[in-house]
Amino acid sequence: MPSTTEIRIPVAVPRRWWFTPVALGLLLAVVGTLLWWFTQQREQHYRHQIEASLNAINQLQIHGIADWRSRRLGDAQALTDDALLAHTVAQWLRPPQAGRGPQELQEQIAQRLRSLVEHLQYSKVALVDPQGRVLLAAPQQDMPALQAGDLAALAEALSTALPQELGLQQVQGQSTTFFSVIAPLFDGEQPLGALWLMVDARSTLYPLLQTWPNNSRSAESLLVRRGRDAVTVLSPLRHRSDAPLSLRLALQDGGDGAEENDTTVALAVAGGRGTLYGRDYRGHDVLATAGAVPGSDWLLISKIDTAEAFSDARWRQWLALGLLASLAVIALGGLFVVWQWRAWQRERMLKQTLQQQMHWLEAAQKAASIGYFLYDRKRRCYQLSRMSADIFGFAPQQSVSLKQWIAVLEPQEREHILQEHEQTLKGLKPLRLQYRIRRASDGAQRWVEAWCEFPEDGAGAGVAMMGTVQDITERKRDEAELQAYRQQLETRVRTDALTQVANRMALDEAIAREWARAQRGGTTLALLMVDIDAFKAFNDHYGHLAGDQCLQAVAGALAGCVARSGDLVARYGGEEFAVLLPGADAAQACAVAQRLLLAVRALDLAHAGAGNAQRRVSISVGVTSVDVQQLCFVLRGRPVAGLGPSWVPGEDCLELLRQADAALYQAKQRGRDQWVLYGPDCDASLSDRTTRPSMDGKP
Ligand SMILES: Nc1nc2c(ncn2[C@@H]2O[C@H](COP(=O)(O)OP(=O)(O)OP(=O)(O)O)[C@@H](O)[C@H]2O)c(=O)[nH]1
């Protein structure tokens, strides 16, 4: 069917298509790096924060404990320095004398001991002699005996006159842990004994270890004292029910008598300061800090579970990350929206461009009467543009089946067109075809030209053929008119304007053509040269206008004498004519010459200057007929008289003219109004041509 031309619609291809994905990738990379950096910074920051606060708590508690200890020792020192108390005790210890009785003195001392319990919050207070025996206890108090280790401290206190601490102790038969101090008493230089002061650690010391500023679930402070291979925990445990002083932690695995291992305590005891990471007595990962209590062999270890310490930090970190991620998502969402918006805009612009191009295409099709189409091989149908449908006379926007298209083809051309169509589809080769149709809408016959092609990239070539179709009816009509005009011109150019027979150019072409044909076919070719006799005299007598009419009449008579296809009557020039007779032998040519003579005579044109008796217009005819092949052989084999040294192969046909002319000359010589067949005698008389006699016998 119709034409095919690939329909190329200029489309504004987005130039930097890669920009958006690359920018998004870079943005994601930057955001990721920033998030990672931020996470690291935050983690570092939180770690420092936690370590600093743990350290601060540890220091605070150490100060509290040190202060508590020094107060206890201060109390003891004050009692040692109390001269009144020492004097009273000394009196009470002496044998009874006049004055205050032992009972009264005892009452005074007991009163003093009670005041220590009541005002200084000591749990137990007792007066012991230099051997460590309890002499007097605060009222209603059951005092244990000094233990063997404590007697050394007592002796030290009495010898140095300085209070000595007994440390934290578990009193036999009681669950309470006491902190004991020995305050020596002297009567002058004489040691009297000592006050044994016991303060309940549970109510006065241990609360200092619980001063945590937060409500952590795992935070804990341990007061420990280093032994030889193990560490004794002096304070109660938060996560276990072990009594103070009962738990011993090994300094290393398998420590002597140690019950548990605690790496943070081991590190602290080994001198580790700052933040310590390890496992506690429960086996939990902890973060700890340790410090020595000044003036003692105590260490305070403050610790918290790592998981708990960082859970809050992690939670806050995740919160920050979540915030950042939300911002990133919002930013990406914004970018995506912008991208989509731009894509939508681009699509809209492309659609507008496409629409505009389609309008232009439609307009161009209309202006050029060109429509486009698509042929679907599978469905065997055409999709036609509006212009294509118009050309074929189908309804607009119609899908036309192959059958419908075949129906509009001109019946006699149908088979040929279908063959071409099939071959094109088979070979996937472009096709240009002009054919006639009977328009479906009104049955009018129209010429169309179809260009068919297949997609350049090959995609879909198997299923589709595209093309354009143009109504070329007007062009065809113009071409036909042009062709007719050209033929007319051709005829005119080869026709003599006066006589309407062929002119010299047509004669030359005919001679060359027939000469070649005769040469190929081995046939004869005859030429008759015709000259009107004494035509100068006719002109002189009747005038040139009459001369022209005479020429026309003679030409008509000559033309009437030849009827065979290929025979040609031409005006050779002036009053001379030539008659070309392809295939005529000498006899036939002479017969024609005779007919020419008779035909001119039959015109019966008056010619006052004629040489004949009737004074009528007459002609002389030179006749020649040659076997072209033979003549050519002769001409090329040896020189021919008359042709001269300038003769060249290819001009053989001039010999025909020469012979006819020689015969004509002979006819004139013989008196005119006759024909002469060329013979050797004609050549002989050619040399006399310049002295050719006139009609009146003059040269
Ligand atoms: N009227 C007219 N005369 C022509 C035309 N062409 C040539 N002539 C004349 O034809 C005459 C030819 O004269 P010549 O060549 O002397 O020959 P002739 O008088 O016919 O004598 P012969 O040929 O010897 O019989 C000249 O006078 C030309 O002027 C033409 O087209 N019209």
Automatic annotation (TrEMBL):
It is an enzyme of class 2 (transferase). Gene3D superfamilies: 2.10.70.100, 3.30.70.270, PAS domain. Residues 523-680 form the GGDEF domain. It catalyses: 2 GTP = 3',3'-c-di-GMP + 2 diphosphate. InterPro entries: Diguanylate_Cyclase, GGDEF_dom, Nucleotide_cyclase, PAS, PAS-assoc_C, PAS-like_dom_sf, PAS_fold_3, Rev_trsase/Diguanyl_cyclase. It comes from the Bacteria. It holds the Pfam family GGDEF. Its EC number is 2.7.7.65. PROSITE patterns: GGDEF, PAC. The chain crosses the membrane at residues 18-38, 318-341. Residues 431-484 form the PAC domain. Keywords: Membrane, Transmembrane, Transmembrane helix. This is diguanylate cyclase. It comes from Comamonas faecalis.
